[in-house]
Design goal:
Its cofactor is FAD. Belongs to the oxygen-dependent FAD-linked oxidoreductase family. The chain is of the alpha+beta class. The protein contains 18 helices and 18 strands. It has a seven-stranded antiparallel sheet with strand order 15-12-14-13-17-18-16. Strands 5-6-10-8-9 form a five-stranded antiparallel sheet. A four-stranded mixed sheet has the order 1-2-4-3. Helix 2 packs antiparallel against helix 4 (94-107) and helix 16 crosses helix 17 (509-520). It is globular and about 65 Å long. It binds flavin-adenine dinucleotide and 2-acetamido-2-deoxy-beta-D-glucopyranose (NAG) (6 copies).
Length: 552
């Protein structure tokens, strides 16, 4: 199928050059931007599959705003001053993606690719750069094809949400599960491109560790799969962050076995109830316990028994087994938690999706296939990793800094297990052996006016945490995108400038990512504030590939 499409594109490319000459002449003669867009739209109509324009939205269309806003999660990027796209394309077939790439390239428009729209900096639908841009919104491409039995796997198109994917896989068999994140509205496209962690990562690794094939449209508009894209590009798209290498239109994922019943619990302790020493114990054992046990910690401001503000430490957990077995495991490794049967709930794996998303009011698993409700809110976040336990006596200080925030949430997830068995070079995600847990700092707010204060608190908190977290380089998670770490100023920003943030996300893998980029997108078409810059190390393609080969 892929080959067919590539050959279909060849006659098109010839046609395209002639058509383009006309379009350019018009664009140069008339500088009205609307005319430029019209020509871009004309360009798209050369796609034999563009039989109507139902998949194209420009600011003149009455549905433009609703389509644009539909998956904006972070309200910080939904204001009237947020830069908006010239057009939104919602492809109905892969050729719509291919022609959008070719036409955008010709008109020198940038591309923003959106699957679930959860990007922390809104980079899937807005731009801080001056160049006009077009959004490719994949929400209509979301078919899911499941193959059960031995080597169970799924082909999922990238416009699907994690919730839809989880739902349909669990419908196929209640003993099949997908390894990915805990938020059901997150998009499969961006999430897996950046790694993707969730409550089975200690047993099965990241979502990206479970990718076995992919279909992408590359910078030349070609639709390629694992075989035709080659192992270097296939390596880069599994964790190198979305948007730098092409438009992923479908992933093939390994499915994993989940037992009939799994067990969840959520136990909260204030400082007065010994929260700090429990936290300390968790630091020592969370990454070492059975791989069936995932324990994350949520730190929030709570109230103690006399109504005074305190820190609340919540142990939020999933165990791939029965409640009895869980209590046995905790009694062995973490008796201080005092976990009891009444704290534990056995449920089907699919039900844990609702549990971890804190659903309320009788929501059912059927709601997962409705892709909602989108959690629209103002938020800001940063990430860190911890490699050495934070001394217990320092915790008081950290809690004090938390209390200075309005309503901060710190989420920490134990690594270890499969996460540290996988080599740091296997895929671009580098934070493996020796990493105890990650920290996500988040502030949510509902009123625009407090944004400045929240963001400034978080920057201070991040500064103060420096002695306690992984450093040189400080480690960050690309799926928790943070533009404070550094940005590309324009498409000429060099690899060495980008190293400052690139090494935080990818460690030594950043260089290899930049070399792959130099081969597959040397002109930096897929360019944005934190895209991987091309590192061009040699003049011929053959040499470049050899260089990558010798780097491995
Ligand atoms: C409420 C919430 C909960 C979250 N929970 C988790 C969690 O449990 N675990 C975890 O690891 N992360 C989690 N995240 C982070 C999430 O994984 C990232 O924000 C992820 O990038 C979102 O993917 P998306 O498709 O929804 O986002 P988008 O905003 O659509 O895309 C994110 C980035 O990927 C690019 N991109 C999107 N689709 C494609 C594609 N098809 N091909 C190429 N590039 C693409 C975009 O251009 C953008 O740069 C959460 C985020 C939120 C807001
Ligand atoms: C525009 O939105 C309306 C109302 O939601 C819907 O009925 C209509 O089909 C949409 N049109 C297109 C082209 O998407
Ligand atoms: C384009 O349309 C034709 C027939 O209408 C179909 O066979 C082909 O698969 C489509 N191409 C893509 C890339 O969807
Ligand atoms: C609640 O917190 C306040 C302030 O830290 C403290 O003085 C008080 O003893 C706490 N009360 C209880 C019941 O823990
Ligand atoms: C704790 O709460 C009580 C009653 O609400 C209040 O009088 C007291 O000042 C508070 N103490 C602290 C340390 O905040
Ligand atoms: C989950 O929901 C409950 C009730 O709606 C709320 O009190 C609690 O704070 C929520 N927890 C989280 C972690 O959001
Ligand atoms: C937002 O906060 C400002 C300043 O504190 C206040 O004046 C305003 O009423 C708030 N708006 C809403 C909708 O709560």
């Amino acid at each position: 199928m892929e080959l067919n499409i590539i050959t279909q594109m060849i006659p098109y490319m010839v046609l395209f050059s002639a058509a383009v000459a006309v379009a350019v002449a018009v664009a140069v003669a008339v500088s009205d931007p609307v005319v430029v867009v019209d020509n871009f739209l004309q360009c798209l109509t050369q796609d034999p599959n563009a039989t109507n324009s139902d998949f194209v939205f420009t600011p003149n269309d009455k549905n433009y705003s609703s389509v644009l806003e539909s998956t904006i999660i972070n309200l910080r990027f939904a204001s009237s001053t947020t830069p908006k796209p010239l057009a939104i394309i919602t492809p109905l077939t892969y050729s719509h993606v291919q022609y959008t790439i070719l036409c955008s390239k010709h008109f020198k428009f940038q591309i923003r690719i959106r699957s679930g729209g959860h990007d922390y900096a809104g980079l899937s639908y807005t731009s801080n750069l001056q160049t006009p841009f077009v959004v490719i919104d994949l929400k209509e491409l979301r078919s899911i094809t499941i193959e059960s039995g031995q080597n169970a796997h799924v082909w999922v198109e990238t416009g699907a949400t994690l919730g839809e994917l989880y739902y349909w896989v669990s419908q196929e068999s209640q003993n099949l599960g997908v390894v990915a994140g805990t938020c059901p509205t997150v998009g499969v496209g961006g999430h897996i491109s950046g790694g993707g962690f969730g409550n089975m990562m200690r047993k099965y690794g990241l979502a990206a560790d479970n990718v076995i094939d992919a279909r992408i449209v590359d910078a030349n508009g070609r639709l390629v799969d694992r075989k035709s894209m080659g192992e270097d590009l296939f390596w880069a798209i599994r964790g190198g962050g979305g948007g730098s290498f092409g438009v992923v239109v479908a992933w093939k994922l390994n499915l994993v076995y989940v037992p009939d019943k799994v067990t969840v619990f959520s136990v909260s302790k204030t400082l007065e109830q010994g929260g700090s020493s429990l936290f300390n114990k968790w630091q020592h054992i969370g990454h070492k316990v059975s791989q069936d046990l995932f324990m994350r910690i949520i730190i929030q401001i709570g109230l103690n028994d006399t109504g005074n503000k305190t820190i609340q430490v919540t142990f939020n957990s999933m165990f791939l087994g029965s409640a009895d077995k869980l209590i046995e495991t905790i009694t062995d490794s973490f008796p201080e938690l005092g976990l009891q049967e009444k704290d534990c709930t056995e449920m089907r794996w699919i039900e844990t999706v609702l549990y971890f998303d804190n659903y309320t009011k009788g929501d059912s698993i059927d709601d997962l296939k409705e892709r909602g409700p989108e959690p629209k809110i103002y938020f800001n976040a940063k990430s860190d990793y911890v490699k050495q336990v934070i001394p217990e006596e320092k915790l008081e200080e950290i809690w004090k800094w938390c209390m200075e925030g309005d309503n901060p949430v710190l989420v920490m997830e134990s690594h270890g297990g499969k996460m540290s068995e996988i080599e740091e070079t296997t895929i671009p995600y580098p934070h493996r052996k020796g990493y105890l847990y990650n920290i996500q700092y988040v502030e949510f707010w509902g009123n625009e006016s407090s944004g400045k204060r929240r963001i400034s608190w978080m920057r201070k908190m991040y500064e103060k945490m420096t002695p306690y977290v992984a450093n040189n380089p400080r480690a960050a998670y690309v799926n928790y995108r943070d533009l404070d770490l550094g940005v590309n100023y324009d498409s000429k920003t060099s690899y060495s400038n980008a190293m400052e943030w690139g090494n935080k996300y990818f460690g030594d893998n950043f260089k290899r990512l930049a070399m792959v980029k130099g081969v597959v997108d040397p002109d930096n078409f897929f360019f944005f504030e934190q895209s991987i810059p091309p590192l061009i190390t040699s003049t011929t393609d053959e040499d470049k590939i050899n260089v990558i080969g010798s780097y491995l």
